[in-house]
Amino acid sequence: MSASRIHPGCRVMKYQILIVVVIAALALTGFLLHARERNRRITLGEYQGRDLMTDNELEFFGRLVQALPQYYVFPQVAMTALLEAASRDEARRNTDRLRIAQQRIDYVVCDKRCNVVAVVELDDRTHSRAKDAVRDERLEQAGIRTLRFESRAKPSLREIKAALAEVAGE
């Protein structure tokens, strides 16, 4: 019997080992790809689009634009675009920044040089007078006046012009 001959049982066993190794490699690859995709989703998060404004806000935006053609009107502006925490104490400054970080302003009215003339808020049932007063005071600290209009009784174009003229000192 020749030493170079392999027992038939060993050949079968080699193929079985090879098949197990290939299956294990495929399983490991699948697991790693799945884990990478899962980590990517966790890192990126999951998002979908949404409307910038409600129908009510959009209608009022149109009124503002029509009533104030000499101004730019920007809807849904982040409060942090207009205010920055001013405390000299770093911890306090960070706390103050976080207080406004998630807040948005309904509309910002600017002159043609993009200087803020006023903030306009359309108050509806979601607004709280106490919270609104704090927001207004924060804006006032930065020299920004707030105009508030009731959603249920929206002003006419003339009333909008007059209110802004009063705030702008015109």
Structure write-up:
The protein has about 170 residues and is an alpha+beta fold. The protein has two domains: about 1-45; about 55-170, Trna Endonuclease, Chain: A, domain 1 (3-Layer(aba) Sandwich), CATH 3.40.1350. It has helices spanning about 10-45, 55-65, 90-100, 130-140, 155-170; strands at about 70-80, 105-110, 115-125, 145-150. The chain has a four-stranded mixed β-sheet with strand order 1-2-3-4. Helix 2 (about 55-65) crosses helix 5. The radius of gyration is 32 Å and the shape is elongated. The model has no long low-confidence stretch (mean pLDDT about 90).
Topology, element by element:
Layout: H1 8-44, H2 55-67, E1 72-78, H3 90-100, E2 104-110, E3 116-123, H4 129-141, E4 146-150, H5 157-168
Parallel strand pairs: 3-4
Antiparallel strand pairs: 1-2, 2-3
Helix pairs in contact: 2-5
Organism: Pseudoduganella dura
InterPro entries: DUF2726
Protein name: DUF2726 domain-containing protein
